[in-house]
Amino acid sequence: MSTRASMPFAAFPNLPTRVADWLGAGLVRLEKAVRDVASGGNGVATTGRSTASKLPEITIFFWIMKICATTLGETAGDLMSMTMNVGYAVSSLILIAAFLIVLVVQLMSKKHSPMLYWLVILATSTAGTTMSDFMDRTLGLGYMTGSAILISILAGILIFWRLTVKDLDVVNIRSGKVELLYWTAILFSNTLGTALGDFLADDTGLGFGAAGAIIWGAQAVIVLVYFATPVSRVMLFWIAFVLTRPLGATMGDLMTKTHEEGGFDFGTIGSSAVLGGVLLFFIILSMRQHRKLARELPGDDPSMEILESEMEGR
């Protein structure tokens, strides 16, 4: 490269860092705006996360990363079971083992780690994909029967959780028993989501694009209910959480399937690489912003009040 061509980059040696800071500040501003709308403009956080919790706050960025992780789970699961021809049964065993490993690390952790949390989410998504395909295709249960079984299992987990713990709080979880219930529910919700997505796309004949559009519409209804009604936030969380999985499943299939099958034919390898990069970008960006705020107030997690004061000072 010529000296002339490299001069613009030499003049801005900290450009990547500045871009990351700018994007991080933009995320903070957007998150504050969403919180203000949800709280009626009074700046009060609606999630009520305790600093002792090992789980993230439920914000708009949580849902962006969740959709990305579930879509990646679909493409990565298909990459192992179909592209690599490992098979649904063996893939399920491998991915469930990987899920158990990262889950044990998460359970042993004493504080919230964004990277570890999203690794467990990704593990539940990939394992859920192959578990669902094993039930519906290898065992021959079909998508409708498989979905009905998984709905019953998930309902049983949530009922047991409610009866034994007395609440279904998905933010302030500090005991190992409740966290294990949380991750078990997430594993089966992701498995259910895969079956539902395949049912909508295949059994109904809608195709991946139309099925995805229906699920996006259902998510939009949930958002309207959240802002316009006093319906239980916990119930809305689990409905939205389950629906992000078929959304990810249909989006993953839309990206990887051939044109003849109604997809974009990006392939499982290329789609997984792109989705993995996007998810990693958001994780690193959130970790960077979190560490920056934590340094300004050592010994405490950054709350919404800190974010608000920071924005007012800029």
Average of the residue pLDDT scores: 74
Quaternary arrangement of the chains shown? Answer: single chain
User: How many DSSP helices?
Assistant: 11
Question: In sequence order, what are the helices and strands, one letter per element?
Answer: HHHHHHHHHHH
- Count the domains: 1
* Category by helix and strand content: mainly alpha
Shape: globular
Radius of gyration using CA atoms only? 21 Å
Biggest sheet record: none
The end-to-end span amounts to 38 Å
Brief account:
This protein has 314 residues and is mainly α. Helix content is 76%, strand content 0%.
Task: Describe the structure in your own words.
It contains eleven helices and no strands. By secondary structure, it is an all-alpha fold. The radius of gyration is 21 Å and the shape is globular. α3 packs across α5, α3 packs across α9 (233-256) and α8 (207-228) runs antiparallel to α9. The protein has one domain (60-287). It starts with a helix and ends with a helix.
